[in-house]
C-alpha cells in the first residue's frame, strides 16, 4: 500500500513523469533499469526463453500553463482527456516549485445564459498581484498536477489522485519480484495520455514475443442503467478487454488469462464497450505485430482529480497476473 500511495502522491503529468520514474527506478535498481529517449523506464529480469512484456503507463492527466495575464492569473491547456466540469475550485501544484493554485471561473451570478464552460472560461489563481509577481514563481510551459488525495473508504474502496495508472505501476513493481521461466520485461511507459507515445519505443526496445498491458478502465456503475450499457463495475473483479478503439487483443493471450482466473476462482469481468484506448494500440502494432492482451481495474471518475478503485479488484488483478506468470514455467 505504501508503494501505491507514494506513486499517487508523485507528480507525473504526461511528458513530465520524472518524479514517478525516479521513484520506480529506486524500486527496480537491482535490475539496472534503463531510461530511453521517450522517458520510459525499462527493466528486464534476464530470464531465458520467450520474452514477455508487461507495460503500465506512469503519466497522469493534468494541465500546462499557456498564458500569464497582466492580472497575474494563469491560463492553461489540459494535458490528456479531461472534462473541464471536474476542474472548478480544484487545487493544483504548478512547476518544480509546486506553486499552489486554485482553478476558478466567473461567479455563477455573473454568467449569462449562453456562457460556455471550457478551457477559455477557466483560470488559475496563484495569489499573484500582477504578471511580474506571477512570473517570479511560474513560467509558460510549466505543468500543473492535481492535489494529492489518498483515502480508503466504504467497502475496501480507495480514492486517490492518478490511480490511472499508478495502480498498474504498483502492481507491476510487485510482479518484478516474481521469478518466471521466461524473460520477463517491464515497461513503465511515458506519454500514454497524450497518444500512447512511449509504448511504441518500449516495444521496439524489448522485441517481446507477447505483451500484457496493465491499466485502469472506465466504469458506469454509479447510476441506474441497463446491463449492456455498463462497461465495468467496481468490486466485480479485474477487467479483461476484448476490443477497444486502439487494439484488438490477441485471443490466445486473452483466453489464457481467463482460464487462469476461472481455474483459481478469481472474479473477473469483460469490458463491455469499445470506448477508450491503451498502450496496447502501440505495442500490438510494433515490429511485425506483437500478440497483446489488456487487463485493467475498473475505475470511477477516470481522468479527474480524484479517482476510485476497489482494493479487492486490485489484489485480485495482482493475484491473477502472479499466478499467470508462475504458470508460464
Write a concise keyword list for the protein shown above:
single chain; 329 residues; alpha+beta; Aminopeptidase; Elongation Factor Tu (Ef-tu), domain 3; 8-stranded mixed sheet; 6-stranded antiparallel sheet; 17 strands; 25% helix; globular
Q: Could you write a compact summary of the structure shown?
A:
25% of the residues lie in helices and 26% in strands.
Number of helices: 8
For the record, what is the CATH homologous superfamily label of the largest domain?
Zn peptidases
Provide the number of structural domains: 2
How many β-strands, per DSSP?
Answer: 17
Question: Per the principal axes of the C-alpha atoms, what is the gross shape?
Answer: globular
Q: What is the arithmetic mean of pLDDT?
A: 91
State the helical fraction: 10-25%
First-residue to last-residue Cα separation: 28 Å
Name given to the CATH architecture of the largest domain: 3-Layer(aba) Sandwich
- The fold-level CATH name of the largest domain is Aminopeptidase
The main sheet orders its strands as 1-2-12-3-13-16-14-15
Amino acid at each position: 500500500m505504501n508503494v501505491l500511495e507514494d506513486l499517487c502522491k508523485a507528480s507525473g503529468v504526461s511528458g513530465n513523469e520524472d518524479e514517478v520514474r525516479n521513484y520506480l527506478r529506486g524500486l527496480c535498481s537491482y535490475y539496472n533499469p534503463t531510461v530511453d529517449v521517450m522517458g520510459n523506464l525499462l527493466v528486464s529480469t534476464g530470464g531465458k526463453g520467450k520474452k514477455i512484456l508487461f507495460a503500465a503507463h506512469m503519466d497522469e492527466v493534468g494541465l500546462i500553463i499557456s498564458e500569464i495575464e497582466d492580472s497575474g492569473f494563469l491560463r492553461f491547456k489540459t494535458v490528456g482527456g479531461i472534462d473541464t466540469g471536474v476542474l472548478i475550485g480544484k487545487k493544483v501544484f504548478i512547476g518544480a516549485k509546486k506553486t499552489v493554485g486554485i482553478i476558478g471561473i466567473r461567479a455563477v451570478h455573473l454568467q449569462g445564459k449562453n456562457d460556455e464552460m471550457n478551457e477559455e472560461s477557466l483560470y488559475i489563481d496563484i495569489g499573484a498581484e500582477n504578471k511580474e509577481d506571477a512570473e517570479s514563481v511560474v513560467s509558460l510551459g510549466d505543468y500543473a498536477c492535481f492535489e494529492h488525495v489518498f483515502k480508503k473508504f466504504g467497502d475496501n474502496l480507495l480514492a486517490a489522485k492518478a490511480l490511472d495508472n499508478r495502480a498498474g505501476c504498483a502492481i507491476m513493481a510487485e510482479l518484478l519480484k516474481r521469478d518466471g521461466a521466461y524473460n520477463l520485461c517491464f515497461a513503465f511507459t511515458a506519454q500514454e495520455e497524450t497518444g500512447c507515445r512511449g509504448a511504441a519505443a518500449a516495444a521496439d526496445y524489448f522485441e517481446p514475443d507477447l505483451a500484457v498491458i496493465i491499466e485502469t478502465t472506465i466504469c458506469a456503475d454509479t447510476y441506474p442503467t441497463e446491463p449492456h450499457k455498463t462497461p465495468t463495475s467496481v468490486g466485480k473483479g479485474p477487467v479483461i478487454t476484448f476490443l477497444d478503439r486502439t487494439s484488438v487483443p490477441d485471443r490466445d493471450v486473452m483466453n489464457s488469462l481467463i482460464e487462469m482466473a476461472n481455474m483459481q476462482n478469481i472474479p473477473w469481468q469483460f469490458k463491455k464497450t469499445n470506448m477508450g484506448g491503451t498502450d496496447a494500440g502501440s505495442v500490438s502494432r510494433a515490429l511485425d505485430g506483437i500478440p497483446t492482451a489488456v487487463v485493467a481495474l475498473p475505475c470511477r471518475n477516470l481522468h479527474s482529480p480524484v479517482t476510485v478503485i476497489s482494493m479487492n479488484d486490485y489484489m485480485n488483478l495482482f493475484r491473477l497476473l502472479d499466478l499467470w506468470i508462475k504458470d508460464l514455467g
